[in-house]
Amino acid sequence: MTRKLERLGTLNEQDRSALRDLPLTARRTAAGQHLLREGEDSTTCYVLLSGYACRYKTTSAGARQIVSFHMAGDIVDLQHLLLSRADHSIQAMTELTFAATPAAELKKLVQSHPAIAEALWRDTLIDGSVYREWVLNVGRRDAKQRVAHMLCEFAARREKAGLGSPASFELPMTQDDIADATGLTNVHVNRMLALLAAEGLIARDKRHVEIEDWERMCEAADFDPAYLHALAA
Amino acid sequence: MTRKLERLGTLNEQDRSALRDLPLTARRTAAGQHLLREGEDSTTCYVLLSGYACRYKTTSAGARQIVSFHMAGDIVDLQHLLLSRADHSIQAMTELTFAATPAAELKKLVQSHPAIAEALWRDTLIDGSVYREWVLNVGRRDAKQRVAHMLCEFAARREKAGLGSPASFELPMTQDDIADATGLTNVHVNRMLALLAAEGLIARDKRHVEIEDWERMCEAADFDPAYLHALAA
DNA sequence: CGTAGGTTTGACTGATCTCAAGTTTGGTGG
DNA sequence: CCACCAAACTTGAGATCAGTCAAACCTACG
Question: Which helix (H) or strand (E) element contains residue A138?
Answer without folding.
Answer: helix A114-140
